[in-house]
Amino acid sequence: MRILIVTPTAADSRSGNRITANRWAGILRKLGHRVQIRSSFSGELADCLIALHAQRSAASVRRFHAACSLKPIVLALTGTDLYRDIKSKPAARRSLQLATRLVVLQQDALHWIPGPLQRKTVVIYQSAMAPRSRAVPRKRFYDVAVVGHLRAVKDPFRAAIAVRRLPSHSRIRIIHCGAALSETVRDRALREMQSNARYHWLGNLTHGRALRLLDRSRLLVSSSRIEGASNTIGEALATHVPTVSSRISGAVGMLGKDYHGFFDYGDTAGLRQLLLRAETDTAFYETLQEQCRQRAPLVEPQREFQEWATLIRELEIG
Question: Which candidate in 82, 246, 249, 312 could, as Cys together with 112 as Cys, close a disulfide (CB 3.0–4.6 Å)?
């Protein structure tokens, strides 16, 4: 098949959607298909459209359906789709109706799909791999990683705020990588480093360097308000680094509803308590590790490959 993947991001972007599109293109090419990635549909010849984002790709979905009404459309739903746009924006809801199949990236997302559309929805977890050479965590510090751009939806400074009032004997420090998307947030990160010796912002890193940072950390903090499915939590599962996360659907679907490392979104004291407990309570930390090991098969590359193979085969059969 000739498959067109549409993602409304620049080709050189390091956003989660672009990373996802590139990985899916690799899988589909291994399956023998010809794949192009574009930011929108502009009349390209294609036997199938895979669109990321119901709202931002709505025009592409609509144009492809008008030009190729008998050809399948696969719509992958992001966090803003699931938890905001499909409730309130007609264009996003229209994308759901036009799609042949819907893809969500973690199990809990199914609860947010309107009932009649759940039968055409498939869950495909994004795969992740640990670095080939594994890092050894530093003994002097208890490094906790925050991996993500400095965007309001990520609540990016929650971990930094949480460690301001740690007891002096704690070895915890926050190592944060991600781009500052405005001068205002950049200045805030620099001020935080000046006043908070436990916070270190590294700026934007390549994916490989960010993965190595995660690999040598004791914990990952994910403090987002909305998350469709976190690539970084998936990478933490692959590297066996436990996550401490805000209790949101995207994290529950990745880590399981009974995971012990959740705190309420925006709860600084709750996050601080979890960080200290992980540092000082060996049994608790080992429980988090074991729970993550049990979820790690969800992000194995072969699983994602087989799920895409099954979906494309179903579309070809019609």
Answer: 82
Q: Residue 304 and residue 306: Cα distance in Å, rounded? A: 6
Query: To which CATH superfamily is domain 2-126+300-317 assigned?
Result: Glycogen Phosphorylase B; (3.40.50.2000)
Specify the pLDDT at position 318. Answer: 65
CATH topology classification for 142-299: Rossmann fold (3.40.50)
Give tens-digit pLDDT for 20-71.
899 999 999 999 999 999 999 999 999 999 999 999 999 999 999 999 989 9
pLDDT of res. 128: 93
Mean pLDDT (the chain) is 94
Q: How many CB atoms lie within 10 A of CB 116?
A: 9
Stated as kind and residue range, the H or E segment containing 80 is helix 79-80
Whole-structure pTM value: 0.90
Domain regions of the chain by residue span = 2-126+300-317, 142-299
Ramachandran assignment for 24, one of left (phi > 0), alpha (psi -120 to 50 degrees), beta (any other): alpha
Question: How many Å is the maximal CA-CA distance in the chain?
Answer: 65
Phi, psi (5° rounding) for residue 177? -120, 140
